[in-house]
């Protein structure tokens, strides 16, 4: 998502009217934009890339959200190009015409999706793969193939599922980035106004 502060034809007139202060005001607005996109990116990561938008995550997508200032009067909020999360950064968008995306295993027959007590409160998998589970085994319930373990030593001990296995899953994007940026736009305007006020006062 890209935000550009555009100066219309009256910009030069405004700079000329303020004389030497005009350039300082413009510089202050640009500095405020640079600060504001950083704060807004943090707002998106902390408040919109969470359980309500993304039910299961590793934290990498949240950490990859950034705000940067590539050119004067230009600010960008999103995922930096060539990030390690490029393959699933689309989850942050809002692109209904291309939904859902079907995910299939690259190798093997099934996708192993962490469930139940295999997930922490924040949705991070404790075991990444069924291979990581000591004494784990598969259970076919008829409509689902599960992988888990028994809590206890006897056959009567309750089965605890840790993964559900699927041949494919359909994933929808979340709108977390546009929603979060729209909610945090005031951070950009506040930062710009604060910087400009310092020049004028």
Distance between the termini: 33 Å
Low-pLDDT runs of 5+ residues are: none
**Helix content range of the residues, please?**
25-40%
What is the makeup of the main sheet?
4 strands, antiparallel
Q: How would you explain this protein's 3D organization?
A:
- It is a single chain.
- This protein is an alpha+beta fold.
- The protein contains 4 helices and 9 strands.
- A 4-stranded antiparallel sheet has the order 5-8-7-6, with no helix packed on it.
- β7 (145-150) and β8 form a beta hairpin.
- The model has no long low-confidence stretch (mean pLDDT 85).
What would the keywords be for this entry?
201 residues; alpha+beta; 4 helices
List the helices and strands and how they pair.
Elements: E1 2-4, H1 10-18, H2 20-47, H3 60-64, E2 65-71, E3 74-79, E4 101-103, E5 111-114, E6 137-140, E7 145-150, E8 159-166, E9 169-171, H4 176-200
Helix pairs in contact: 1-2, 2-4
In short:
The chain has 201 residues and is α+β, with helices and mostly antiparallel strands. The chain is 33% helix and 22% strand.
């Amino acid at each position: 998502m890209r935000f550009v502060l555009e100066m219309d034809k009256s910009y030069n007139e405004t700079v000329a009217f303020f004389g030497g202060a005009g350039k300082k005001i413009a510089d202050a607005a640009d500095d405020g934009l640079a600060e504001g996109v950083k704060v807004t990116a943090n707002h998106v990561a902390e408040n919109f890339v969470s359980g309500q938008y993304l039910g299961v995550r590793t934290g990498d997508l949240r950490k990859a959200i950034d705000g940067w200032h590539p050119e004067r009067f230009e600010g960008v909020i999103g995922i930096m190009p060539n990030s390690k999360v490029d393959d699933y950064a689309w989850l942050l968008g809002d692109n209904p015409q291309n939904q859902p995306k079907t995910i299939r295993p690259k190798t093997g027959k099934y996708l192993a999706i962490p469930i139940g007590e295999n997930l922490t409160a924040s949705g991070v998998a404790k075991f990444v793969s069924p291979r990581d589970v000591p004494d784990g085994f598969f259970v076919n319930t008829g409509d689902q193939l599960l992988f888990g373990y028994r809590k206890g030593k006897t056959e009567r001990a309750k089965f605890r599922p840790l993964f559900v296995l699927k041949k494919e899953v359909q994933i929808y994007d979340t709108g977390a980035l546009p929603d979060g940026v729209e909610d945090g736009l005031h951070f950009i305007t506040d930062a710009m106004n604060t910087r400009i006020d310092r020049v004028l006062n």
